[in-house]
Structures are given as C-alpha cells and as structure tokens.
Amino acid sequence: MAVVSSIVAVIMALLILFVRMKASKRPTNAKKIILPPLFMSTGSLMFLDPLFRVTKGELIEAIVLGAFFSIFLIKTSKFEIRDNHIYLKRSKAFIWILVSLIVIRLALKSYLGRAIDYHQLSGMFYLLAFAMIVPWRVAMYVSYKRLEKQLKHNPTLWST
C-alpha cells in the first residue's frame, strides 16, 4: 500500500508540474487560484474515520512542516502583466522545489512509516499538504489582487 501511495504522489507531482507549465501560457484569474485548496479541503472528511485521526503533536508537526514548505512555493510563484492580462511567471526554481518536496515526502514517509500507523500517516501527510497549499494560494491571491488593482487603475501602462 505504501508503494502504491508513493507512486500516486509522484504522478500527482508530475501532474502539478505539467499544469503549472501550461498555466503560464494562459492568463490566470482569482478562481483558478482559490479553487484548488477548496477542492482539496474535501479530503478532511477522512478524519471522520477514527483510523485517520492524528495526535495533537502529529497535527502540529504536519502543519508547521507544511507551512515551512509553503515558503518555498510562495517565493517561486510570481505574476506578471502581459497584454493587459495577469500571467503566472515560469520559474525553473519551482520545478526543483517540487521535485525536492516529493523526495523529502517520500523519505519522510519511508522513515515515519516504521513508527506511525499507515492511516495516521496518511492523515498527517494530508494535513502537511493542506498546510502547504493554503498559505501558498493565499499569498498568490494577494499578489494577484495587487496586480489586478494596478491593471484596473492604469490599463495602458501594461500594454505590450
């Protein structure tokens, strides 16, 4: 089961990378920034099953680590205005950070899997991912809104 979930994690990382590369080719909007964490939040339903519940310590560890990892995503997610639209800038650093995060995740999962029940570990990694995506998307939303406001106040300034 651990091998299957690791393979799924790698596939998801590759999917994120592919989506990110395509996203930089089209203008973005607030909805595209806000929806992923909302969709992901449905995963919280797993905690209705007592098997997936984590201790307070595990909860804090997962959230702190997720928030820490979000810093790297925030630093590599920048927007630019082209042709009176807001685009997500491509970043080579994002690719390396995403790859590094998946390697760290797999290493942690392998190490922690020896001491923590599989279900609890799944809950912890869900919390880690959610604690990573929410601050990242909030920062992206704030940055997007700032550029959107500049664009509305002076649209001809950004024409190319």
Automatic annotation (TrEMBL):
The chain crosses the membrane at residues 6-21, 33-52, 58-74, 94-112, 124-144. It comes from the Bacteria. Keywords: Membrane, Transmembrane, Transmembrane helix. It holds the Pfam family DUF1453. InterPro entries: CcdC (IPR031306), DUF1453 (IPR058247). This is Membrane protein CcdC involved in cytochrome C biogenesis. It comes from Anoxybacteroides tepidamans.
